[in-house]
Amino acid sequence: MKRFPIICLLLLWTFGLSAQTQQTISTAPARETTEEYKPKRHTVSGYVRNNTGELLINATVFDLTTKQGTTTNEYGFFALTLPDGLHRLRISYLGYEEHVEHVDLQADRRLNVSLSEMPSLSTVVVTGDLNSPMLNTQTGKRSLSQKDIRGEFALLSSPDVVKSLQRISGVAEGTELVSGLYVHGGNNDENLFLLDGTPLYQINHTMGLFSAFNVDMVKNVDFYKSGFPARYGGRLSSVIDVRTNDGDMQKHHGSYRIGLLDGSIHFEGPIIKGRTSYNIGLRRSWLDLFTTPIFAIINRSNNEDKFSLGYHFYDLNAKLTHIVNSRSRLSLSLYQGRDALKSKDEYNQTYGNGNYGSNDLTRNDFHWGNLNAALNWSYLMAPQLQANFTAVFTRNSTHYNTLYESNDRSETRNDFTRTEHGYRSAIYDAGYRMAFDYRPTPGHHIRFGNDYTWHLFKPQTYANTSQYGANEKRDTARLAGSNRHIAHEISLYAEDEMVLSQRWTLNAGANIGLFHIGSRLFCNVDPRAAVKYQLSEKVSLKGSFTTMSQFVHKISNSYIDLPTDYWVPTTANLRPMRSQQWAIGAYIMPDKHWLFSVEGYYKQSAHLLQYANWMGIEPPAERWQDMVMDGRGRFYGMELDARYHAARLELSAAYTLSWNKRKFDHYYPGWFNDKFDNRHKLNLNLHYRLSKGTFAYAAWTYRSGNRATTPTQYAPLPDFGNGSEQGYIYERPNNIALPAYHRLDLGVNIHHKTKHGHERIWNWSVYNAYCHLNTLWIDMKYDEQRGYVRAKAKGYIPIIPSFSYTIKF
Amino acid sequence: MKKILLFLSCALLLGCKDNFDITKLNGTDKLVVYCFPSPGDTTDINVGRSQPVNGKGNAVMIADASVTYQVNGVALTIRNLGDGHYQAIGQQREGDRITLSVKANGLPGTMAETTIPTRLAIEKFEVDTVNMYDRDYEAFRESERFAVTFTDDAASEDFYAVKLVQKIGHHFRNLRINTHDEPAINGMSDIDYDFGFDDSSYQNVVFFTDKSINGRRYTLHLGMPYRPFSPPHRIELYRISPEYYRFIKSINDVSNNDMGKIGLAPITPTYSNVRGGLGVLGGCSSGLGPWLVGEED
């Protein structure tokens, strides 16, 4: 039965190739095509850049002569194979002036195009943008540029990739202010975050207030919630492919930004003009720079009890790019992000003329973060074939150390206790990515490749030391343990984006995933197919079917992204998580200003993993396999999107109607609502250019409340020997929907050019402008005297005004 | 104008809160039945009535319920002890199938089933005095440590309960057991304790499974703070049925789930195998340690 999808794919592929032959004949250029005369075909290939040399992703290259086109890949590369003769190539990209190049094609030809950024939003719609939802083949794909992310409302005046994605239809944000991403009902660990091709395991700072992506560095984000191309694999619910800027190849420039809680600096420029560039961005929270001296002043006046607390995060992105020659290019991308929380409490007391006293010291040191590195070599093997080889390394780790020391002195006795705990959890990935981009004809865009990842999971390494005793006699107890799993993950993929006819396009492929751990080898074949039917110039219809597999899991017992969560592999006792998703959609573009879309999806997941020991925040790693449940999920819904673009005004609306249900037999006998089963979700966004340099925006979010589990009965509990008791009975998980969530965010960006040519940007923003204290949970208290239960909605997040100031030079 | 702006500013800062209407929670009174049969000749049965959280009143015991208790299909005599307490009189052994049905006026009838697990023997019992880390005191304390050896059945998935019972006169009560040195039981990491989370057990009865000891002869290491004149006390180890385990685990899971109480973690539904009602019918078989009496230091 498993072979069936593969056979279907092969048939589709065969059909595609034969259909392509017909299509080539039917859409042949003006010259008559006869059996005697077959025009020679040549390939025009190259890169599309902006005027600073930055490669542009998803730019459209369209031959106005033959009406055939393509888009640039994540390395800015394109190739179009066309009949010989004169052609008019139109190269376009959102926010840039389009460029038309006249090409007399008599042989294969290299074409590198540089596009100029538009000074304002005067013409915002790109004619025939092949990456637009209207014309691309995939369902559920969104692309965001840095400009898009900067144009969104920014919480704490710090633009954020994940919070931008939360506004997209089909995505639930989860718990307020936390960078959660629950796509089509999937869990937070079912999203594949790729930073320049390397997986990112920890995507948050400050427990989710900020995401790990520094927007100064981001060039493009491709987000998929359905219709996943075969080149992506390893997660069930979404793919977020983040690519960073290479850096300006022509001149040095940068920016400084200071926000309410964080600041950033960013520099980019050429090391060798036109050949080698650097791009460095550093972001850091700065609140500890104030809290440290404040605690020092407070502690100075208190000799007995001294307390200090400090928290900061930073992330550093660096990228070096070198153009070796016209065919070859190297880049090294580094990312390090870290959060650190430290506290120290010292208590000293002396009495009885100094003969008696006690000293207590408690010290905690908690830090966590990622280190990612990617070395990429991009090589043009032939005009139609580009190869990319990337070596990747990822480390995600959490460290926690705590020390407690106590000393009680008397004239005759000195009692001493010292306890030190150290924990570490980590995951290391090292491997390579081989990706080939082959475009033999305009009707075929074939991608194939192979990824290999060596995983080292060290879920929990701990060392506990305890000393205790009186006077000179002390006993020491040490306890240490660790566990580790080594796994090998290989994926092979091939996909072809085929133009079957003037109306039909198909993207079909498969991703074969192999996962080896211990003596077990798991092999999953994930077929993928997306099809588009262009009903007219203004209407397209799409459908997709995808299967996804996931071999790594996050062990978490909460709905928030805690640094104490850790990643573990599929093991001999567990099965890989799998999902199948069907999506259909209709896309309507009545004129150049409006775009409407409606998409429906149905996703079912199997072998979902849920940690089932609901205590504390760091589940013990020795027995995690004994404490997980295997379950299923069923997620379906409909999404409506509308966008309006004009010179000064941009409007967008995203509505989601969805149902998210889960079933874990050892948890609850029937299907139950997911925590984030928000039946309705509506996001309205408005961007308005008030004047040449002043942009205002507003975002209103409404959704049905998250689900919550509340007791439904108050009942006697059994007496096991300590007397009879009464307590709450919880009959069904997530039995109620919290009150509807809604909030309005407002902001304004004011741009000003100084006489030195520097740009200053002031940002003012207000989160939750009408201060709706959205409910986080329901608190229930039983009044025994009156004999009834009082329930109160608890919500605490108020209006949050913020400000940031940026200088660009 | 200034006043209007001031009013609007104050209104914004005060914010608006949601109301939650508890009457939305549909619920009706249900029979609550607890019964834990073990090998022997009498079995206690407790019957009560729950109070839905959207209603008014108290959860009460039911003194006039109709109780049917069957061992392998044979009904036993039921004695009504009053105040919702009943007793089934008659012999039952390990492996017996127990069914219990309860009816009471105005409430839907209930039905539950369980099997009495195989008998558990404590093969070896030792006690010594050592320094054990006590989380309640965040320090090492001189403790009585009990080493309780038993053999797990490799062929079955087994569930256990252990309690430390103290006898004062004719009264018994369960003391807190220090499980810090016992990996088969301890469900939390030290990092959780450092952050102030708790893993207390309902009425000091500690529950665990055989997942980490399956098929092995295993020695549990359990502690209690040493007291020179401690009244008689003993360790009681039980093999319990899966229903019993799931019920009490769900009670403990909720009680220890501090994050769940504020909506940040899933909450385990309270397990019940009482169809049509609440509560549990769970079998158990015990292995009892010797009574120990504290001595003068």
CATH architecture of the largest domain in chain A: Beta Barrel
Mean pLDDT of chain B comes to 88
Task: Name the structural class of chain A.
Answer: mainly beta
Helical stretch tally of chain A: 4
Number of domains of chain B: 2
What is the helix content of chain A? Answer: under 10%
Give the class of chain B from helix and strand content and strand pairing. mainly beta
Approximate helicity band of chain B = 10-25%
Structural features, described:
The complex is a heterodimer of chains A (809) and B (297). Chain A is mostly beta strands and 809 residues long. In chain A, the strands form ten sheets. Chain A has a 22-stranded antiparallel beta barrel. Chain A has a five-stranded mixed beta sheet with strand order 9-16-17-12-13. In chain A, strands 1, 4, 7 and 8 form a four-stranded mixed beta sheet that branches. The longest helix of chain A is centred in the N-terminal third of the chain and has 24 residues, at 3-26. Chain B folds into two domains: 25-115, Sandwich (Immunoglobulin-like); 124-241 and 284-288, Immunoglobulin-like (Sandwich). Chain B starts with a helix and ends in a 9-residue tail after the last strand. In chain B, strands 2, 3, 5, 8, 9 and 19 form a six-stranded mixed beta sheet that branches. The chains are: A mainly beta (809), B mainly beta (297). At the A-B interface, strand 24, strand 25, strand 26, strand 41 and strand 42 of A face helix 1, strand 1, strand 4, strand 15 and helix 2 of B.
